[in-house]
Amino acid sequence: MKKIPDAELELMMVIWDSEQPVSRMDIETKMENHRDVVPSTILSLLSRLEKRGFLRKEKQGNVNYYYALVEKAEYLQEEGQRVLDKMFGSSLTNFVTALYDGKGLNEKEIAELRAFIDEQAGTGQK
Question: Which residues constitute the domain of residue 31?
Answer without folding.
Answer: 6-68
